[in-house]
Design brief:
With about 180 residues, the protein is mostly beta strands. It has a domain at about 1-110: Histone H3 K4-specific methyltransferase SET7/9 N-terminal domain, CATH 2.20.110. The protein is about 10% helix and about 60% strand. Strands 1-2-3-4-5-6-7-8-9-10-11-12-13 form a 13-stranded antiparallel β-sheet, with helices on one face. The radius of gyration is 19 Å and the shape is elongated. The mean pLDDT is about 85.
Amino acid sequence: MEDQNLEKRLGGIVEDITKKKKVKDYSTLDNCFDSYEYADGDKYVGELKEGKRHGQGTYTWVLGDIYVGGWGDGKFHGQGTYTWADGDKCVGEWKDNKFHGQGTFTHADGSKYVGEWKDNKFHGQGTYTWVSGDKYVGEWEDDKIHGQGTYTWADGSFWTGEWKKGKKFKENKKGFK
């Protein structure tokens, strides 16, 4: 699941839009709604406060990614949806440019994580369903299965127990449903 890491996928994008120069100076705009375009073709339409994205807005990258949702002090903040051009999508809570709180990450192939996040990583209670039909329901830490949980394979067999850093640690029960 290393390719699932949002920190890797979002890190450069978020840093880029935070530092990006606008085509014109918007610093005098306060508590208003406007749209602007960056020199590279990216666009923002939404609310501004002290010239920064703040409130509700939509940011569209020229390459096809799009973020629709809350902003705070120029950063993703509050409820929002980030959709990549390849079809992957994050829907949920954001805090200071990171997926943080409750949310859903859906891959273009149909695999999905629904649960808690911390700093762009699976963290807390969550459910991951693979395209194969395999499913894990339980605790996560730092993007890894960690704590109590049940892994169920597509054939109905399952393993319930304690996990440590993505590996089975202490079995409570296994069998078929």
